[in-house]
Design a protein that fits this description.
mainly alpha, two-stranded parallel ribbon, about 50% helix, about 5% strand, binds tryptophanyl-5'AMP
């Protein structure tokens, strides 16, 4: 697999991103994804934001709560400031283009490409033979999500880098096979301080929904006391106070993570955070970080709760989003069906 695909695609720029309705959203999802979505929207980008429920069923899950978890992610998108009139906010399974295009792209993707995907290896664990075919095929569905809208930019955390590379390879192969640049080569919008938020208990492990240690992450629905407690209890090290420059963060993954979180919340670089807190003890820095996190998240949590108590508002936004998403994807699917050679009456 190579990542040197190019395309002469000259269509409009368009952002697409998705979040799975599995487990509680955490600070990593917020800083790596949600916060960027709102910034992009407010900077005037056309954006399509999707609750990817088809992805959520690739692993064992609780089907009784999927719909409510789907609403919860939509509530988070709205609470973070996505506006259903400016952006498209919808649920993946309500737009058919995703599954149909995934099938076409399955016939472009190569087994060898998918076998290299580290997320499959991580999630399937030792017993890959027993993993669902859906889990193996997950990255092709993700490529279809993006390409069904000819999206050019994809804001995600850095754990999605490999999936984006696969998307470009699939797009490139389609363009090459059919001899026309139908699809763009979507670019990740990954860089920035929030791209990889680590566990509060282990600075070498990603903050994750599936970590059994509750104190390893800050959930978007945590109340202020819980957030403050988790930050105060977060792991640091015994190598002294806060360093005064970025070099001093080397070999101190937990401290680097806390500095990164502070910077991502306050829109400051590590240098700027250390210029302010270098030389202080964690007894000063941790409460400041807790206060900043609460200040940032409390209004979002409050709005999320309000929306969850009023699911009609969420559903109305999602219905509008479904219509808008279909209106973009259907002409693209018509083009794909024609190019692939499917019979049309
Ligand atoms: P998901 O649902 O696991 O995560 C949602 C978003 O949160 C980011 N993220 C993080 N960012 C920084 N630090 C972390 N610790 C952290 N943990 C998660 C993820 O990178 C992601 O941006 N495959 C995707 C969903 C998806 C998608 C798509 C994304 C499906 N189709 C098309 C973009 C475009 C996923 O599982 O995200």
């Amino acid at each position: 697999m190579t990542d040197e695909q190019t395309s002469t695609y000259a269509g409009p720029t368009r952002v697409f991103s998705g979040i799975q309705p599995t487990g509680n959203l955490h600070l990593g999802n917020y800083l790596g994804a949600l916060k960027k979505f709102t910034t992009l929207q407010n900077d005037g980008w056309d954006g399509i934001y999707c609750v990817v429920d088809l992805h959520a069923i690739t692993m064992p899950y609780e089907h009784e709560v999927l719909a409510s978890q789907t609403r919860q992610i939509a509530a988070a998108m709205l609470a973070c400031g996505l506006d259903p009139d400016q952006s498209v906010i919808f649920v993946q399974s309500s737009v058919r283009a995703h599954t149909e295009l995934a099938w076409v792209l399955n016939c472009m993707a190569r087994m060898g490409w998918l076998e290299k995907m580290t997320q499959f290896k991580d999630k399937a664990g030792k017993d890959a033979e027993r993993a669902s075919v859906g889990l193996f095929d997950y990255p092709v569905l993700m490529a279809a999500d993006i390409l069904a809208y000819k999206a050019t930019h994809v804001p995600v955390g850095d754990d999605q880098t490999q999936h984006l590379e696969l998307t470009r390879n699939v797009a490139g192969r389609f363009n090459q096979y059919y001899g026309q640049d139908v699809f763009p080569m979507p670019e990740g919008l990954i860089k920035g301080p929030g791209a990889r938020i680590m566990s509060l208990k282990d600075g070498t492990k990603k903050m994750s929904k599936s970590d059994p240690a509750e104190n390893s992450r800050i959930n978007l629905i945590d109340d202020a006391d819980t957030i403050a407690r988790k930050i105060k209890k977060s792991k640091t090290d015994t190598l002294g106070d806060m360093p005064s420059d970025v070099e001093g963060l080397e070999g101190r993954p937990e401290v680097a993570n806390l500095v990164g979180i502070y910077g991502a919340l306050a829109d400051m670089s590590d240098e700027q955070v250390l210029a302010e807190y270098g030389g202080t003890g964690f007894g000063t820095f941790k409460p400041a970080l807790a206060e900043l996190a609460v200040e940032h998240l409390a209004p979002i949590t409050a709005r999320m709760r309000e929306l969850m108590d009023n699911p009609d508002e969420i559903d109305a936004a999602l219905r509008k989003g479904t219509e808008k998403a279909n209106a973009i994807a259907e002409p693209i699917m018509d083009e794909v069906r024609r190019i692939v050679g499917f019979w049309r009456p």
